[in-house]
User: Which sequence fits this backbone?
């Protein structure tokens, strides 16, 4: 589709020239539209990092908040976020993976399984604040877990579940059908086939999907702010196991919301530094997932 | 091998082993499969559970004599903590949600579509890979960080460029929400463009069209359902977004008249007031009723979008 050479058998009429001008213009406009997404992101991230610079050091990560959260670091929030992420994924990953195994390997195409599919899709679309209402009604009050790490983690688990199901299904579906048929033909049962052939061949894809949910669980605020995360909790500096599971905890996302809207007189670089830590977490998690995916693609045998 | 009596048949190894599988292995497999089925059904349980629990908490307020559903949906008087004259009308919040979402879509849809077209038709392999990584990152930025960006960066820019008195308003929320919903619009639109059969492209190129003409005359009409689904999913994301709009749109409960007015959305209203509403009070139950409204809205939008996407995949 490149410009026609002058010596072409086709003569370059004004109509052709207009056509090519249009094409070049369209290309630049679309390119600019794609750039309009990338450039603000880079500018914003750059601005955040510059503003956060005075607070960005190891001390900030390990120190506890001081003087009514106007100074100090983010240790209790960081550890709280790790608690929430690990517990919620420990619950949602097994359920999600087994659910995807059911949908991809066992389910026939009938109305009941179409309803399950619909439920997964709609679960993914439920607003995060509705998850918060559900967590409050179901875990805090009905199940009597109270405002606790358990309630908040379970709420997060249900929120991350549909995405884990979707990504695992995709990974399972990418294993060729001929692999399964070969295994069935030597007399393996359905479950033996899944265990020996399907899961080993899709494990990297499944892991990628689960890892990506780490950043989602770490960044969500609304579902945890009414189920178990508090503004402030006093914790020893550098304490690795500061919380019991039936206690409330702090979380990075909630901490950023609190110090940027609720607490007056915070040292200006601290909220920016908290935002940068959250962003860095997301970058690390995504980079891990992407490199895993690249590695997987390079190793694929089919 | 011609005479079966001279060479004895090989012992049937596989059959013997299959018969000797231990009872615990067979039983264990049964249990595991039961577990797989159970997990498979869990999605239905959770969706129903969400609806039932949220609705159950909201239900008692529906039967109060001083509460009417028409007033809840149609009135913009929201005085939940007033001593003498409690009013629960969320119309202003509905207007706020609509205003912010519509503005976000007006910005995000053209840019998202343009970027998707560039990704799938114009750019090379390397650019595409890089852009996809950026888009994935854009999608993964936590909503509270977007809210913080709205509160600090965007609000200052808006005050500087428009001369508005406060920087947290519909425009701010719309811009932030547009940046948040662009990734989903791009990825679903790109899928829709990819799904157009190559024979369409080849036929058009054989007629001597440029790529622009190909996009405008062939691909967009052929992919228009998928593009519609992309927009709907963007709308679903916009309506349901909480923290970013809570921080970026200001806190005024009134119907906006311009993009520089502060508003409050349905989601932000729940997030802002749930902590202060005593459990079991009318105020608390009305907030859950707002949750039911949001659940129903996003359920409808997602259902329609999914029906469209499924229809395309079947083709």
Assistant:
């Amino acid at each position: 589709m490149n410009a026609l050479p002058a010596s072409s058998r086709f003569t370059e009429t004004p109509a052709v020239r207009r056509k090519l001008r249009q094409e070049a213009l369209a290309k630049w406009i679309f390119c600019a539209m794609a750039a309009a997404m990338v450039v603000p992101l880079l500018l914003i991230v750059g601005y955040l990092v510059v503003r956060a610079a005075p607070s960005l050091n190891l001390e900030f990560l390990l120190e506890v908040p001081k003087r009514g959260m106007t100074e100090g670091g983010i240790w209790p929030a960081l550890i709280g976020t790790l608690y929430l992420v690990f517990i919620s994924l420990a619950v949602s990953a097994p359920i999600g993976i087994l659910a995807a195994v059911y949908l991809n390997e066992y389910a026939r195409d009938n109305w009941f399984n179409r309803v399950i599919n619909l439920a997964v899709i709609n679960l993914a679309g439920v607003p995060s604040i509705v998850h918060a209402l559900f967590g409050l009604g179901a875990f805090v009050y009905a199940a009597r877990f109270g405002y606790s790490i358990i309630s908040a983690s379970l709420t997060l688990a249900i929120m991350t579940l549909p995405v884990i199901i979707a990504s695992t299904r995709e990974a399972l579906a990418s294993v060729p059908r001929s692999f399964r048929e070969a295994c069935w033909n030597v007399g393996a049962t359905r479950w033996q086939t899944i265990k020996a052939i399907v899961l080993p061949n899709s494990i990297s894809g499944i892991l990628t999907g689960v890892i990506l949910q780490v950043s989602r669980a770490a960044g969500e605020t609304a579902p945890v702010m009414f189920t178990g995360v508090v503004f402030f909790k006093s914790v020893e500096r550098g304490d690795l196991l500061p919380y019991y599971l039936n206690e409330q905890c702090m979380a990075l996302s909630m901490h950023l919301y609190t110090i940027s809207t609720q607490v007056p007189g915070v040292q200006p670089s601290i909220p920016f530094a908290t935002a940068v830590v959250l962003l860095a977490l997301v970058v690390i998690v995504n980079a891990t997932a992407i490199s895993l995916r690249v590695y997987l693609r390079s190793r694929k045998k089919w | 091998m011609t005479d079966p009596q001279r060479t004895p048949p090989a012992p049937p190894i596989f059959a013997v082993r299959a018969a000797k599988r231990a009872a615990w292995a067979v039983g264990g497999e049964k249990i595991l499969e039961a577990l797989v089925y159970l997990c498979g059904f869990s999605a239905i349980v959770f969706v129903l559970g969400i609806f039932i629990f949220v609705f159950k908490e909201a239900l008692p307020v529906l039967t109060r004599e001083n509460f009417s559903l028409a007033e809840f949906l149609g009135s913009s008087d929201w005085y939940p903590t007033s001593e003498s004259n409690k009013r629960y009308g969320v119309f202003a919040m509905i207007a706020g949600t609509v205003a912010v979402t519509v503005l976000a879509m007006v910005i995000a849809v053209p840019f998202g579509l343009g970027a998707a077209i560039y990704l799938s038709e114009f750019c090379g392999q390397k650019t595409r890979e890089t852009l996809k990584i950026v888009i994935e990152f854009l999608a993964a930025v936590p909503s509270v960080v977007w809210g913080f960006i709205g509160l600090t960066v965007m609000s200052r820019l808006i005050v500087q460029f428009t001369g508005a008195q406060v920087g947290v308003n519909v425009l701010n929320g719309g811009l932030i929400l547009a940046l948040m919903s662009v990734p989903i619009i791009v990825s679903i639109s790109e899928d829709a463009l990819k799904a157009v059969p190559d024979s369409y492209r080849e036929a058009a190129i054989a007629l001597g069209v440029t790529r622009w003409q190909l996009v405008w005359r062939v691909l967009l009409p052929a992919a228009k359902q998928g593009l519609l689904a992309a927009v709907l999913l963007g709308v679903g994301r916009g309506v349901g977004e909480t923290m970013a709009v809570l921080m970026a749109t200001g806190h005024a409960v009134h119907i906006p008249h311009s993009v520089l007015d502060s508003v409050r959305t349905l989601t932000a209203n729940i997030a802002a007031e749930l902590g202060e509403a005593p459990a079991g009070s009318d105020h608390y139950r009305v907030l859950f009723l707002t949750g039911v409204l949001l659940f129903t809205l996003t359920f409808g939008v997602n259902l329609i979008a999914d029906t469209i996407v499924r229809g395309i995949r079947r083709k």
Notes: Residues 261 and 271 of chain A are 10 Å apart (CA to CA). Chain A touches chain B through 92 residues (CB under 8 Å). The radius of gyration of chain A is 25 Å. The first strand of chain A starts at residue 65 and ends at 66.
